[in-house]
Amino acid sequence: MVKTDAGWSCWATLPSELAAEGAATAKGRRIQFTATLTRSDRDPTFAFGKRPTHASFLNS
């Protein structure tokens, strides 16, 4: 689950560029990535991310 600075959330898989470090190290960290988003039919503040790429961790 990704929570954005704008206040909406997105469900996406962990981008392969970050998977080498493992999901446990990604939790709570700021990241940047590109993905195709599809808004949820049930919640206008939630989206599903597809094919995340160009990912990197950001400095806090």
Helices and strands in order:
Elements: E1 2-3, E2 9-11, H1 16-19, H2 23-26, E3 31-39, E4 46-57
Structure description:
The chain is mainly β. The protein is built from two helices and four strands; from the N terminus they run ββααββ. It has a four-stranded mixed beta sheet. A hairpin with a 6-residue loop joins strand 3 and strand 4. The longest helix is centred in the N-terminal third of the chain and has 4 residues, at 16-19. The chain is globular and about 35 Å long.
Percent in helix: 10-25%
Q: What's the mean pLDDT score? A: 88
Oligomer state equals single chain
Strand order of the largest sheet: 1-2-4-3
Uncertain segments of ≥5 residues (pLDDT<50)? none
* Shape verdict: globular
Largest sheet: 4 strands, mixed
Q: Count of DSSP E strands?
A: 4
Features:
single chain, 60 residues, mainly beta, 4-stranded mixed sheet, 2 helices, 4 strands, 43% strand
Quick overview:
This protein is mainly beta and 60 residues long.
